[in-house]
Structure prediction request, 197 residues.
Amino acid sequence: MSGHKFDSRRAASLEGFWRRRLAPWREVLDAAAPGPDEDWADIGCGPGFYAEPLARRARTVHALDLSPDMVALVAAKAARLGLDNVRPAVCGEAALSLPDAAVHGVLLVFVVHELDRPEAFFAETARVLRPGGRIMVVEFAAEGFSLGPPRGHRVTAAQVRAWAAAAGLAPGAEHRWSRRLLGWRFLDFAGLVLHKP
Prediction:
């Protein structure tokens, strides 16, 4: 897991036809349940694949990424689509560019497996979350066969729960989504909701 980061030169692969067809973006947002009076952060936003539909449901979306290239892409996308409630910004893995208790919710889609310091990251994420707020963690399932990142880069729900507990976050509902072709399950996603008491 440590040291693996998505290469921003491959950003186009995060936006294409097949990702829109196969990624569980509707299901993820339905489970996260952002409200029109809520402020959210999409951390590790990439070029804005999830930030875009999240911005159509939430009041404000802070689209944060380590890569200035990704932040530029999400800013251009938001401008092109007229989404004036998207706030793109560069951040550090354990230094999010938000004040304390700034957001009602955080979206972490395919991010946790790339973390170098998950304990510090979850502590920082808890810092920017309001009391009563929630985090939606989505990863490729660690067990079973599924396309996605190599097995050595995947994380389990138990690992996420442990890192979250150390940051004072409580686990909530777990979700599973999959995609099938001729009855064969070739993509398997796991979601975990975390809460800040």
